[in-house]
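Technical appendix A lists one of the benchmark inputs used to test multi-chain prediction within the project. The record comprises two sequence entries:
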Amino acid sequence: MSGHDSKYFSTTKKGEIPELKEELNSQYKDKRKDAVKKVIAAMTVGKDVSSLFTDVVNCMQTENLELKKLVYLYLINYAKSQPDLAILAVNTFVKDSQDPNPLIRALAVRTMGCIRVDKITEYLCDPLQRCLKDDDPYVRKTAAICVAKLYDINAELVEDRGFLESLKDLISDNNPMVVANAVAALAEIQENSNRPIFEMTSHTLSKLLTALNECTEWGQVFILDALSRYKAADAREAENIVERVTPRLQHANCAVVLSAVKMILQQMELITSTDVVRNLCKKMAPPLVTLLSAEPEIQYVALRNINLIVQRRPTILAHEIKVFFCKYNDPIYVKMEKLEIMIKLASDRNIDQVLLEFKEYATEVDVDFVRKAVRAIGRCAIKLERAAERCITVLLELIKIKVNYVVQEAIIVIKDIFRRYPNTYESIIATLCESLDTLDEPEAKASMIWIIGEYAERIDNADELLESFLESFPEEPAHVQLQLLTATVKLFLKKPTEGPQQMIQVVLNNATVETDNPDLRDRAYIYWRLLSTDPEAAKDVVLAEKPVISDDSNLLDSSLLDELLANIATLSSVYHKPPEAFVTRVKTSALRPEDEDYGSETGNSESPAHLADSAAAGASPPPTSSGSVPYAAARQPAPAPVSPAAPVPDLLGDLIGLDNSAIVPVDQPAAPTGPPLPILLPASTGQGLQISAQLTSRDGQIFYSLLFENNTQVPLDGFMIQFNKNTFGLAAAGPLQVPQIQPGTSAGTLLPMVTFQNMSQGPPTSLLQVAVKNNQQPVWYFNDKISLHVFFSEDGRMERANFLETWRSLPDSNEITKDFPGIVVNNVEATLDRLAATNMFFIAKRKHANQDVFYFSAKIPRGIPFLIELTTVVNTPGVKCAIKTPSPESAPLFFEAVETLLKD
Amino acid sequence: MISQFFVLSQRGDNIVFRDYRGEVPKGSAEIFFRKVKFWKEDGQEEAPPVFNVDGVNYFHVKVVGLLFVATTRANVSPSIVLELLQRIARVIKDYVGVLNEDSIRKNFVLVYELLDEAIDFGFVQTTSTELLKSYIFNEPIVIDAARLSSLGSTGLFMQGTKRMPGTAVTKSVVANEPGGRKREEIFVDIIEKISVTFSSSGYILTSEIDGTIQMKSYLTGNPEIRLALNEDLSIGRGGTSAYDYRSSFGSGAVILDDCNFHESVRLDNFEVDKTLTLVPPDGEFPVMNYRMTQEFKPPFRINALIEEAGMLKAEVILKLYAEFPSNITANTISVQMPLPKYTMRASFELEPGAIGQTTDFKEANKRLEWGLKKIVGGSELTLRARLTFSQEFHGNITKESGPVSMTFTIPMYNSSKLQVKYLQIAKKSGTYNPYRWVRYVTLANSYVARI
């Protein structure tokens, strides 16, 4: 071959396609090959060359492997859009699969598996069967992967034709490459199946351990990962396994090392001999440290994993803290992870060294890194009581440099130190106050205000300091306002003199009349009422001793840590999230072209992204600060229904002579009430625990609203929840946040949900199976019904023209009708409002004889639209509902939802 | 298993795009590029190598300014994917000789062929250049190596990576020399990246060597090779904690903390006489990676001083001591020092007669830069800089400047004293005597002096 391939990119003349067509049919081989290359070049830059399908396929019958591969590459790309033409290629494939040249046989099987066209799949079975038993290992290893491909297209076919058994036979193959691929294919099939397919027995184990030594590095990873599912019977077996795996720690491939570490850690759980465990820890340390000499990308993965490992087994790297010191040229993402680990490994023994490092980092240029370093010093102070004083000394030195963001960060951590060691380090407050006027970040301001309020009696001019903040009260962000409010109340309680008294009037006035923030207003009213009713009680409440905070550097709870450790060397261990929180693997059939084509008209392209937002929002590593408890019942941001304000007894009137009219609460927000939730687990079934729950949608986010009533004799705590696979893949977006429930009380919560996390196969159903457990009772299972309308998205509104066009473009077979004989529409306005509130949008209305016909649109996740026609006679029972949708199988669910909505 | 693999240029253009599973939407390359380009999360401005957008996991590594990316929906091993991306880069380089946008574009058919053999349905099959040769039919088009020199000699070892995919060798392992027959030769490079942190008083706080013995063989018939290392080499510090110098100091022996080997290496005699036996596969690969924290003599000592010199003025004095033998020359040395934020101007004063030195004050990030073409062992160099400030400084001026960091390359020098004593090629005939190149080079990784 001559010349440069890139010349194929340069032809952009007008008659390109006809020109190529001519060349493809040339009688000269070389010309045909060049033409196919040009076609491929056009394809890779995104040009549509599908019209050349027949011409390209004609070039397929050749002995020239180079050309054959090019044609296959083309076929894989376009077969899906030309399924009928793809059949043309089948004969050649079948013929090739019996070619004397093993490369051609393998190529045929490999390519056929990539063509996801049902008609072709049928023809694939026989060649595949042959190739799985081929003499040549290259063909067998290709066939092994092909089984996984076929399973992805048609699982039933794979099971019916006995391919799984053939695949299992390959585990005993004499070629390690074949074994590795068989293991990889089986592992994947197992992951997508609910039945046990690839069970790890001691027999398989010993076979795989033998194959391990001869495999390529990649095969070793496949095998180690599959083996990690094996549960050793006893300590001795675990020790044996570990012994066989340990040599892998010396491998140059980081993936092999990490997978070996995972395997060893898992078996270590079973090993009882402390000597053996200690010895293993010693063996694992050097390879783990060596991972930090790899490329920064690998270092990042290693560090995220080490972060988990040291939480469970701190001894492994206890003496290696120096290797986690940041290098000057480390990328920021590596530096941040190293800091985390340094905090975790910091001890009384090495704290001086560590502090010296942190102090150095705190003077570097990168602002984010500097901030994190300052916080790290604070976290060490909280973690190591004996080193706290030294940490504070360093923080004070940093404050003296007077770099603004360093000062602010230092003040934030010092507040936490005060909470950890109350009444110990107040002497430094004076130094802090010097920086008062430079604070411009809300968090730093709030922290400083908290300190002033908390120690008001020790700060001579506390009232002046607070007053300086008060001037800007209305402009401050909410949490600064909250801190100001509380600090002023504290000040007043500690020094009930004239100055603070005036201040409190200003603050209370600001926080009740002038604000529309319900949190602030509620808190202000509570203080107000407390102060006016019983100032002594107010003291007991406001100045009560606070619980001492503890070190948060090991913040993963032990059950999550267990799960993550079981997932070492997977993405889960990088994100520090359980796999179900981010794995959204959909069967490929869900992305069929029909759906895509449809979507281009209705704005489908946006909505998957919109939907996945909630799932993806958590994609980055979790925040490390505490206080990220989302949606806890106590802090519901959702607007609550207004209950008519009961006349308020004039309890507040006598408070420091304020004008009464100013303090009548206008609209006291009540706890979210609404209609009671349906009871799903009656107390009689739940041994005294009653659970009511319902899916709801607020501001586009789906929540599971739950109410727990404890009718037992004991407090219940440790609530957890899990959802079985369901049609919409609904799953909890985070852990269930329910406080301990005392006997005779109840607690409600809104659990944020994500969709498409664990989807069940089969026709859509509304069944939602829920399991709830707590620390005192057995696991409770109950069923709920998913009402489709919670999924209706805000972007489901269609323009009239668009509606008509979509209606017409859908085939009549997609129209489904249902009658609701019992339903009456009395008030059209109210009904429309109610429907609009659930994102079922009114489009048009017309009269037909005495009937009213209404048109609506709605949209569910994945951008599936519903076009709805409701026909009824107002005030007369009977509503007819006709819908058109690209997803007619969801119609029954849709009708259920509409029925509920109309009934209300 | 991965779902897609693609290579993007610095501007975000698709150079190569291969979809193995059809389960990730088509726009993934654009989504990825936008995310990386405008990354701003967790207070960081550089995207981590692994992240998730809308349920799709993106992995990427940067190689010679190109982004090698893989996507997946499954909970895969992230290290396998990141290793794979590095290896693919290396395999392509083995085939086309030099890795850049141009060479990939010119060889796109070959690259696709390689990708199809290396990965099937997202499962890694092999990344061994040697094995791949039996299945690859396209011939590489080697681009003009002369144009490469524009990269300069520092471009030779790529920034940021430890196991440098590129040594000085930029020949394709499969393409024939223009003259016809291939030249019989083998390259063994001992590359050491050293990290040293000096305290403000000049003591060594941490020091570490990350080393690689890199091999690239052009020998026909894949003969067996024996590589002998120092006889007094030992591995593992026998339970002493890191940086405990007492155990090793003064003995003169080379003690590695840890090392690992390429899978082709046989260690039958390693315990006895410290020799490695291997049949080198084609292509470039690391024979051995090692790590050492044993005390060694740093090639450079840095002395940095910043002092107030009256109102709104200060003086910086930087001194470099080259503490290696005078027959060795370091090249492409660059010294950098962040200055206080309110520095307005800096004027420099080099020693009289200084040649091949440049000085610069980078206004944007307030940084002093001192470049030196070469430094002969045993010499001592000084730079003085006078700074002018825009405002009076408060607090401690030394806290607001530094640390001083430097980069350099020292050919034919290695700090660890690890050596290849001999390189034996199993003889086929008496006249067979291929070229053997054993080269040493020391590079700065993180070489920092605090002030």
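The first strand of chain A starts at residue 679 and ends at 681. Chain A is about 50% helix and 10% strand. Comparable benchmark entries are summarised in Table A2.
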